Amino acid sequence: MRAIRITEDHAIDVIEARVPALKQGEILVRPRACGICGTDLHILHHGFPGTCYPVTPGHEFSGHVVAVGQGTKGVREGDFVAVDPNVVCGECRWCRAGRPNLCLHLSPIGVGRAGAAAEYVAVPARNAFAVNEKIGAGVAALIEPLACAIHAVETAGRLRDRRVLVLGGGTMGMLIALASRKMGAGEITLADPVATKRAIATRIGIDKAVDPSALGDELFDVVFEAAGAVPALKQALTCVDKTGTLVQVGVHDVDVTVPINPFNVYEQEITIVGSNSLADKFAAATELMPDLQKEAETLIGEPFNIWDFAAAVESMAAGHAIKTQLVFD
Ligand SMILES: [Zn+2]
Ligand SMILES: [Zn+2]
């Protein structure tokens, strides 16, 4: 089979690889749609913790089950599935504590093991979630980022009637805004310096979409830093209201630091909390996505053929669409 491979020295190759042999509990999936996200850019350009180079990327995907290995339950050949990319050990103290995203032996598909930018990918059957194919392969491939958004929103704690600010109008920011709405948040404001992103935020029904410079000294109960950018985080720290919560969702480079004002955190009783990946929210996202199909479709740009991976990455980095996806022959 053919597969995309990223090497440690930033090269993207199309390689001929063996169709993966299925291990106990695994199924073989033929991907139909696969998203590219910031994590893939990190893997390509800076190195991302936990990446096993050379790696076949692709961790946001949907596809058909074409073979099932031994010891698989609940999945059948021909099923259409979305896949939770986080392969965990199930035994370490974080797994046992119900925090699988913090697994000590985490090996995400497309990062620590071969991903979906290939004709076939082997995945543990328990990571596959059946989806009604009618929602579309692209929308199904957005279930993974939606699960991350749900985890972020739940990390924020109570949202009902609280004023929410989302900094960053990428896929995560948009999905966090949508998930916040589902959780009954009060007014939701999304801030992004790019006008086309604000226009899309408005189109999917976000209450307010503004340029970050227009926020002034407005304060919010819950602030999501979903830009992964230092200016956004600095701004986020200044616009959390008393007893408010700042959720760090955006992925910064590992050595970035930002000063905080501890007096402010103390006096205003502010909570700063991280939200990493999707935890155990994949099933919840699978359930929610049909309600958000229209909005999800609005986020997806004109797809690229899988073998045009390099062009897709360029387009993604240039911000031509909120979500860049690959489709398969
Ligand atoms: Zn991703
Ligand atoms: Zn574990």
Automatic annotation (TrEMBL):
Residues 173-288 form the Alcohol dehydrogenase-like C-terminal domain. Residues 24-131 form the Alcohol dehydrogenase-like N-terminal domain. Pfam families: ADH_N (PF08240), ADH_zinc_N (PF00107). Keywords: Oxidoreductase. Transmembrane segments: none annotated. GO terms for molecular function: oxidoreductase activity. Signal peptide: none annotated. This is Alcohol dehydrogenase catalytic domain-containing protein. It comes from Mesorhizobium zhangyense.
